[in-house]
Amino acid sequence: MTEGDATPMADGDATPRAAGRSASGGAGRWRAWRRSRPFWGGLLVALGGVEILATLRAPLPVILHVGPQGLAGYLVPVILLLCGVLLLAHPPQRLFYALVSLVLALVSWLTSNLGGFFVGMLLALVGGCLAFAWTPAGAGRRPADGPGFDPRRRCRTRKGPPSQAEWVASSPPHRGTPPDAGDGRRRRMTDQA
Fold first, then answer.
1. What's the CA dihedral at 133, 134, 137, 142 to 10 degrees?
2. pLDDT at 15 over 50
3. What pTM was estimated for this model as a whole?
């Protein structure tokens, strides 16, 4: 058999090249999905919530949870975990979820064993900061940037003289003051005296 001949594969693909394409297609879809949302921020926030929740369940005799403080100790990491999942599931609301996770990570220091002995709090803080700073792929670019864009004129350059509307819009405003700008003020001051 030659290189171009089809050879039966175990997974049903006819050629090794087709097997490579299907494997990279799945990886490409995963990469595209991961880049379309604040993946690392959401993952770190969720891991911080899990770590804080795990330290609450630790069998240490020093840890004491009584009354509303105990409820807050369990509620904060559960909401952190939920914020991490929602950052991954619903990226358009990332700023809200990131701010909530930042505030809850700081609150966990008081309510949940020093924020899961600082590890969970730091994971949630770093994840919240990453999620807050994340922007979609094309959001940072301005549509006016590109070939022919002149930042001094703030418009696209073109060949030929400007049209009348462009000429009027680019002319500087008239120098001078409105006729009664200073007079009205002086009259009011003299009337009061």
1. -20
2. no
3. 0.59
